Amino acid sequence: MSRTYGTGSVFQRKDGRWIAQVRDKASGKLVSRSAKSERDARKLLREMTSRLDSGIRAVDRNVTLTTYVE
After folding, report:
1. Average pLDDT, stretch 43-59?
2. Any bridge partners for residue 20, and if so which?
3. Strand ranges (DSSP E) for the chain?
């Protein structure tokens, strides 16, 4: 089965961690998150792609503690 371009991928590293990876269309950068299981990684991938489809960044890495608490 083939995938559509830009839908991201899920793969397992040699250390056993699962990686969900998708390309952020706005910045052109790859965004990766890790999980302990394939199921969790696929869930992360769905969350990241839905955020991108909504026009939000895939991962909020620059959120300060103050902004997070508010």
Report:
1. 81
2. 10, 33
3. 9-12, 18-23, 30-35
Residue that has been written with the tokens 């952020």 in this structure: 24
How large is the average pLDDT for residues 38-58?
A: 85
Residues in the chain: 70
Q: What confidence score (pLDDT) does residue 68 get? A: 46
CA distances from 8 to 26, 29, 63, 68 (A): 15, 12, 23, 27
How buried is 6 (Cβ within 10 angstroms: 0-12 exposed, 13-18 middle, 19+ buried)?
Answer: exposed
Handedness of CA 20, 49, 30, 6 (dihedral sign): positive
The neighbour count for residue 44, using CB atoms within 10 Å, is 23
Question: What percent of the chain clears pLDDT 70, i.e. is strictly above it?
Answer: 70
